[in-house]
Amino acid sequence: MVVLNNYLTLNTLKLRIYFTLALLLITVTCFGFVNRGRVDSLKTLVTSSLKSQSEPDTLRINRLNSLAGNYFDSNPDSTLYYAQKGVALSRKINYKAGIADGLVQTAHANYFKGKFKQAILEFDEAILIYKKLNDNTGLSNCYMLYGRMYNLLANYNEALTYLKLALDLNKKYKNEAYESDCYKNMGIVYYSEGQLSTALDYYYKALFIALKLHNKAFMAADYNDIGVVLQSMELYPKALEYYKKSLKLFAGTKDLNGVGTIYENIGEVMMNQKNYDRAIFYCTKSINIAKKQDDKDGMMSDYTDLGLCYGHKGQFEKAISNLDTSLQISSKYKNVYNEACTLIGFGTVYNMQKDYKNAYKYAMEGQSLAVKLGNLSVRSNAALQLNKTLAGLGRFDDAYKLLRQYIELKDSLNNNESIQKLTSYNLELNFATKQKQLAQQQLDRDILYQQRIKQQRLINTIFLIIILGMIAISVVYYRQKRKQQKINLMLEEKNREVVEQKTSIDDQAQKLNDLNTLKDRLISVLAHDLRAPLSTLRGLFSLLQDDTISHQQLLDMIPGVLKKLEYTSDFLDTLLFWINSQMENFENSAKSFYVKDIVAFEAESYHEQAGLKGITLIDSVPDDIVASADPNSIRIVIRNLITNAIKFSRENDTIEISAKRQDKQNYVITVRDTGTGMSEEQLNKLFKSKVNSKTGTNNESGTGMGMLFCKDLVEKCSGRIWVTSTPGQGTSFSFTVPLGVINETRLEVA
Questions:
Q1: Residue 194: helix, strand or coil by DSSP?
Q2: InterPro entries under this entry (predicted)?
């Protein structure tokens, strides 16, 4: 996966001495609107200037460096050519600023082409010159490009060090455009480290500033980078939305590198969705652009993706050929991340062919580099492929160790992923709120501007009245009074809009606080209630492996472990289904179904559990009740209500599930028990995010989240849920579902 770098030059301080034509050209180019004719005009101007004068001067050097910067997005070789000419001429007359500007351009082009040692020498020399000249704009640009280079080399600490230096300079001198670029590049580094949540935070900071400045080039890059993070979280539809936004902004510009990057990212989404033909189509378009640009990083990623696509299609010769090309480039230019991905890709393709000898060689090398990178996703992929290879070679003990390592890495990745999905949702809410605030500030400025215009008109009118005389005063006064009344009405209307928008913002803030509370609760549950049963099971297996316990002791422990695992499985089913309902288009899943089918299935599943406690479970739902809702949501709600009733019922108690027509639009489904009941205080807290779960009659544990999920799922199905209870006498949970259409054949529940 590729994160877009926004290659923009930052030499505007020196451009003040340029001719008007050169200044306009460079300014427009930095924002992505330059066309081929204007670049050719500047090229002609520089060429004619070089031919017409025998001695170099600062003006021609500045033109050469500017032309080098303008060519980077479309032709990096031209950047290197003109920048080297600028440096040579600058050294001839000892023009320090020209030397530094030219070195930054040559270093940029050299590391883009994989010549990192040469780029480091040029960056270091440029930094020394900028410091002596006290040129903070040039220095911050140099720091930022230095940070990008170290990110490609997987030296993330050095990358962040230089990017933070650039950010501090831009904040100090209030350069918001370059501050946005710094945030974006810091997000790229955190993404490369596998810290997706932190990366997403920085990308949204960058995007907010870009929207504020209406900088389409920055906006396009930020939309792409956010899409990359969402793709890593497997939110593919959301990722494609951001990629399409980015591609639309890049349309018509000369930033071929950006367009190629987006094509590659779309291709990877297609590959993850197993649409390999479409993936090959987009990756081929991307690799053609990368070759034209001589973009080594892009070519490595594209060849690796093409190799995996052909491998999945069974075209192994093409797969090995593409992977071999990627490996040669990544090894030559010491790109650790791409080299690790390519080696793991080799292991994947050879495992598909059952050529475990070759697979072992590449998988071992890939795992070694993955450990060096520290990226959880790359390490888990390496462990999985090495596990398959060792199993194929018959080394089952070693394969088992790798499998355990893969499961541990995947558990860490999944735990992080759930937090990141919640973070993504919260960040989008924050970003939407900031956008509204920005729009409100612009509206306030417009109103103030209109007021000033009207005040000036009023003053002009007063002078006119004095000149014309007292006769016109009464007429003008009357007209002005009417105008003022209209203005007052407009101001009252605007104030009312401001109050309404403020109320809306407060509501959004309250929702955000509720989401944060829910997030903290979910994280607590995931960290404690769900990890504990798994730790118990792991400990049991460890004891069994070491022969620490006897067979009889193992049999005595199994019921308790199964009980905890059963609770964990039920809660995970509910939690995962609820999270899915939050992230996808839930409204389209409603359909007609027989309520009896769902209730009978769930009641049958829990008859044994109820019988063990001496509880009678009765299904009184009529056969002909047809509801229109999401059947999986209703199944989850009924399951939670039944398990909750069993939890708080005693021996000889009864649980009954019934359903009846409530009105013309709804049925009401009720789960009634004769158990311990609840107090009024417990009822008031039941559907709140801060509720604490009580233990059941047999000390059964819980998370307190089930009723909250039930409420949310019922409301998404256009229903409502309520509860009545008397302490010591029992509890009755009821909820409504819309009526469905009865078909001639029996409906099946999904």
A1: coil
A2: HATPase_C_sf, HATPase_dom, His_kinase_dom, HisK_dim/P_dom, HisK_dim/P_sf, Sig_transdc_His_kin-like_C, TPR-like_helical_dom_sf, TPR_rpt
Whether the CB-CB separation of 199 and 233 falls below 8 Å is answered with: no
* Of 259-263, 305-309, 516-520, minimum mean pLDDT range: 516-520
Amino acid at 336: V
Q: Are 76 and 109 in contact (CB under 8 A)?
A: yes
- What distance in Å separates the CA atoms of residue 594 and residue 740, rounded to the nearest whole number? 9
User: Residue with structure tokens 């009312």?
Assistant: 496
Amino acid 26: pLDDT: 40
**Would you give the distance in Å from CA 568 to the centre of its chain?**
28
CA-to-CA distance for 424 and 133, rounded, in angstroms? 43
Structure tokens at 54: 């025998």
Query: Taking the CB of residue 578, how many other CB atoms lie within 10 A of it?
Result: 20
Q: What residues does each domain of the chain span?
A: 415-527, 534-583, 586-738
For residue 88, name the pLDDT band (cuts at 50, 70, 90). very high
User: Residue-wise over 581-609: b if at least 16 C-beta within 10 A, else e?
Assistant: beeeeeeebbebbbbbbbbbebbeebeeb
Beta-carbon contacts of 500 under 8 Å, excluding residues fewer than 6 positions away, are none
The CA-to-CA distance between both ends of the chain, in Å, stands at 35
Q: Is the predicted pLDDT of residue 10 greater than 60, yes or no? A: no
- Average pLDDT on 501-525 reads 67
Q: What is the pLDDT of residue 541?
A: 74
How far CA 256 is from CA of 245, 246, 252, 260, 688, in Å, comes to 16, 13, 10, 6, 52
* Dist CA 265 CA 232 (whole Å): 11
H or E stretch at 335: none
Query: What is the Rg, in whole angstroms, of the alpha carbon atoms belonging to the chain?
Result: 33
Measured distance CA(207)–CA(184) in Å, rounded: 8
How many CB atoms sit inside 10 A of residue 200's CB? 26
pTM above 0.70, yes or no: no
What six digits make up the tokens of 416? 């992080």
CB of 669 closer than 8 Å to CB of 633:
no
Virtual CA dihedral for 124, 125, 126, 128, nearest 10 degrees?
A: 90
SS3 733: strand
What would the CATH number be for the domain defined by 586-738?
3.30.565.10
